[in-house]
Amino acid sequence: MRRPRVLAFIDPWSPDPAELPAIQAHLRGLGAELGVVTKRGTWLVTPDDPPARLAEAPEADRSFEVADGATLVEALAAAGDAMRTPAPMTFTRREWALTSIAAGFSLALFGCKGKPHEDKPAPAPPPVVKAPMPPEYDIVLSVNGSDRKLKVEARVSLLDALRERLGLTGTKKGCDHGQCGACTVHFGERRIKSCMQLAVMSQGMKITTIEGLAQGDTLHPMQAAFVAHDGFQCGYCTPGQIMSAVAMLAEGHAKTDDEVREMMSGNLCRCGAYPNIIAAIQAARKGAA
Ligand code: FES
Ligand code: FES
User: Fold this and answer.
1) Which atom of ligand 1 is nearest to the CA of 175?
2) Percent of the chain, pLDDT > 90?
3) Inside any domain, residue 125
4) How many domains are contained in the chain?
5) How much distance in Å is there from the Cα of 221 to the middle of ligand 1?
6) Are 27 and 88 in a shared domain?
7) Beta partners for residue 35, in sequence order
8) Whose Cα sits closest to atom 3 in ligand 1?
9) HSE (CB half, 13 Å, CA atoms) of 26?
10) N or C: which terminus of the chain carries fewer CB neighbours within 10 A?
11) What range does the domain containing 174 cover?
């Protein structure tokens, strides 16, 4: 069975009796032969025989030469031309095929300076077109009993306006998609999820956040009930829970625990503090906090 043949492109190289045993040991392990291609010629090394020089590139034979800076495609074309040109050979047809192919590829490797596009200046990057800044609108929000002036883009939510423009970070951003209730504030008489409300559409409404619930140092009864009944663990959902619970009581709901669960179902607690939250709400409802 024919052995696999490994091609090596190296220059300069000539068989070295000192390294030959190691090379042949490797070839024996691989069960392969080694074709070594240099600028000056080609050798065939087998595991057991002395290296055989298959071809020598004659000084006068320039048919394989390619111009400096030739592309790989041009070098391959030159190699193909050379392969089609009969040349005086002193080796077998099989060896001639190996030598021609190897020589062609070695010319491609040794004769080319690089890819043509490396010589050309890189194309200029496309000009950066800056999108125009969206306009901002002057608005006034009535928050916790004060009129607050601010400039906002039309797309800014009430939640972002409260937290990032007015510094009222007690209102939390959980999902920003109206699903967790962490951002609950009072909007007039209603409780709303402030992430779902545009700031520019909130003018003229009385907005209350968790910061506006206590009276000075005196906690709102619902806040006190949450503290008394451990109605929180990490506390992230707690401002939204408290704002929602206060509004729920004002709505006249929460007569039973099931009613509390139903009416507070828009306020999620990742910590699962629900039993204590319900206990706190019922305590606040009964005025026993
Ligand atoms: S952040 Fe508004 S509902 Fe979750
Ligand atoms: S206390 Fe942690 S999410 Fe409710």
Assistant:
1) 4
2) 52
3) no
4) 3
5) 24
6) yes
7) 7, 44
8) 178
9) 9
10) N
11) 133-212
Q: Give the atom of ligand 1 at the shortest distance from the alpha carbon of 159.
A: 2
- Considering the domain architecture, whether residues 87 and 183 belong to the same structural domain is answered as no
Token pair 């190897």 is at which residue? Answer: 102
179 lines ligand 1 (CB under 6 A): yes
Comparing 182 with 48, the larger pLDDT belongs to 182
As a residue count, the chain comes to 289
Q: Distance from the CA of 228 to the center of ligand 2, in angstroms?
A: 16
- Which atom of ligand 1 is nearest the CA belonging to 195? 2
94 Cβ contact partners less than 8 Å away, ≥ 6 residues apart: none
The alpha carbon of 202 and the centre of ligand 1 are apart by a number of angstroms equal to 17
Q: Does residue 239 lie in a domain region?
A: yes
Instruction: Read off the pLDDT of each residue in 46-64 and give the average, rounded to a whole number.
Output: 70
pLDDT for 104 beyond 60: no
> Is 181 touching ligand 1 by the criterion CB < 6 Å?
yes
Closest CA to 205 of 144, 129, 263: 144
CA distance 247 to 249: 5
Ligand 1 test: best mutation among 162, 191, 195, most atoms within 8 Å of CB? 195
Of 87, 118, 149, which one is at a domain's C-terminal end? 118
pTM for the whole structure: 0.58
Kindly list the protein residues whose Cβ atom lies closer than 6 A to any atom of ligand 2.
232-238, 269-271, 273
Q: Which residue has the tokens 């065939």?
A: 44
Higher pLDDT, 57 or 156: 156
User: Does the CB atom of residue 70 touch ligand 1 within 6 A?
Assistant: no
The label of the residue with tokens 């069960």 reads: 31
The token duo for 107 is 């010319």
